[in-house]
Design goal:
Residues about 1-35 and about 235 have low confidence and may be disordered. The protein has a single domain, classed as Beta Barrel (L,D-transpeptidase catalytic domain-like), CATH 2.40.440. The chain is built from three helices and eleven strands. The strands form two sheets. A nine-stranded mixed β-sheet has the order 1-4-3-2-11-6-7-8-10, covered by helices on one side. A two-stranded parallel sheet has the order 5-9. Strand 7 (about 170-175) and strand 8 form a beta hairpin. By secondary structure, it is an alpha/beta fold. It has helices at about 5-25, 140-145, 205-215, and strands at about 75-80, 90, 95-100, 105-110, 115, 125-130, 170-175, 180-190, 195-200, 205, 220-225. One of its GO terms (molecular function) is glycosyltransferase activity.
């Protein structure tokens, strides 16, 4: 067979293959629009990049023990229809979620730990200011309940920053009508507290999450704290 003949058969073969492939492409179903889904359960021994160690912090933050955090409480962007303007923080106390509202009816969602019964706070306020590696000064009422905290009282200057500081790596300070509510959004190394009611009123987050949130929020941003209906009579508004 001549070279020309070989090329002709090859051309016919390639052409036929192209027709078949184009036929598959023409009859394929359109790609469905992506939807937000819960992250898969963690593979044993694996840690998502967002929860890995942060060695460059002034006090290096260890990786999160993700086995102690239900995957539904991992940080993720979700659809979130709301009338609140972008930049608003919404704390859904009953669901144990914090939403930072984004444009386009979207929000970044975080799992949180909230106040125990009797210490819950709800209402509208603002994030007056933020602090990296803040000092912790328990209010006098807390010191009265827990005398062992006296060394860290306001008069004694509080507790210095560090991994053992209850405010963790970052804190957002909540004010209402120009006054400090004494409630904070802050970090915590206690992964197992996320999704539970464990703190004395403050809103706690994983340290990695509060570092990320801190960088996204501006001073003066509005915050809305939704009360737990079952404890509405105990909430301070």
């Amino acid at each position: 067979m001549s070279v020309g003949g070989t090329l002709t058969r090859r051309s016919l073969f390639v052409g036929a293959t192209a027709i078949l492939l184009s036929g598959c492409a023409a009859t394929a179903r359109p790609t469905p629009k992506p939807v937000v889904v819960e992250p898969p359960p963690p593979v044993k021994g694996s840690v998502p990049a967002m929860y890995q160690a942060m060695p460059n912090e002034p006090f290096p933050i260890p990786e999160v023990n993700v086995s102690e955090v239900d995957p539904k409480f991992w940080r993720q962007e979700v659809d979130y229809p709301t009338q609140e303007r972008p930049g608003t923080i919404i704390v859904d106390t009953p669901a144990k979620y914090l939403y930072h509202v984004l444009p386009g009816q979207r929000a970044m969602r975080y799992g949180i730990g909230v106040g125990r019964e009797g210490f819950a706070w709800s209402g509208r306020a603002v994030v007056a200011y933020k602090r990296k590696w803040p000092r912790w000064t328990p209010p006098d009422e807390m010191v009265a309940r827990q005398p062992k905290l006296e060394p860290y009282s306001i008069k004694n200057g509080g507790m210095g920053p560090g991994l053992k500081n209850p405010l963790g790596a970052r804190a957002l300070y909540i004010h209402k009508d120009g006054k400090d509510t004494l409630y904070r959004i802050h970090g915590s190394p206690e992964a197992r507290s996320i999704g539970k009611a464990v703190s004395s009123g403050c809103i706690r987050m994983l340290n990695q999450d509060v570092v990320y949130l801190h960088d996204q929020v501006r001073d003066g941003s509005p915050i809305v704290v939704i009360p737990d209906p079952s404890k509405a009579h105990l909430a301070k508004s």
